[in-house]
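User: I'm putting together a small comparison set for a docking exercise, and I want a reference complex before I start. The sequence is below, and the ligand is iron/sulfur cluster. Could you produce the 3D structure with the ligand included, as structure tokens?
Assistant: Of course. I'll restate your input first, then give the structure tokens for the complex.
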Amino acid sequence: MIKTKQHPKRQATRKALIFISLLLFPITMNYLSPYVVIDGAFQGIINGSFVVFGLFFISALFVGRLWCGWLCPAAGLGEACFMISEKPARGGRFNWIKWGIWIPWIGIIIYGALSAGGYTSINLLYQTESGVSVDEPARYIIYYIVVGAVFVLSITAGKRAFCHYGCWMAPFMILGRKVRNALKTPALHLQADTDACIHCKKCSQVCPMSLDVHEMVQSENMENSECILCGSCVDTCPQDVIHYAFDRNL
Ligand code: SF4
Ligand code: SF4
Ligand code: SF4
């Protein structure tokens, strides 16, 4: 078992990574696009977004939602919005909203692929021939719509609200994680030494996904489908109660 300790610079590194990813979003947008993958399905083309979404599922088998904590451009914007509002997201049953978006979207993709007679070619640069997603002024409209949705939700509906309610990418990782949990294969997860907790609740206060981390520690269940393995709780706990671990446990 690999068990890590607190690392003072880890959160600064994480925030730098998601902010750089946000700056690169005009380049990467089409590789994370719900529309491009639909368009590709109707043409029978496996494109960049298709591959990236597949990688989200596969990576979640080993590292859960690490992408969400450490690399996603929307994470950079969502956490930058903490400067304006740190209202917790309500989460709970509202987290199901994203499935109400994801399931019909997947249905359209399947319908499109069937209409095209299946996937017959691969073009990773489909609709991104230059390699840059926003390569002409008109494409900034889509860029600003996505950025605007993440921004407005973040400052009105709580911390990283887009991640809770609107994201079409998170379900791939949640499903991958559930498969891993069912198979109990080795993966990155959180672990807590419950007896060492002094109930200060700093872990819950710093969680960017508004999770009740203190309650997770007390219930001895650190697995939560909304946990993005950002490590904020790991690096904040004054008693070093919470750790990263890589093993077969939940
Ligand atoms: S939930 Fe979606 S928007 Fe949020 S960090 Fe994960 S992939 Fe990005
Ligand atoms: S920060 Fe650590 S000590 Fe404080 S409530 Fe959370 S787990 Fe317990
Ligand atoms: S529980 Fe900890 S690792 Fe998970 S999202 Fe919250 S702060 Fe990050």
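The chain has one domain: 2-184. Residues 34 and 168 are 7 Å apart (CA to CA).
User: Thanks, that's exactly what I needed.
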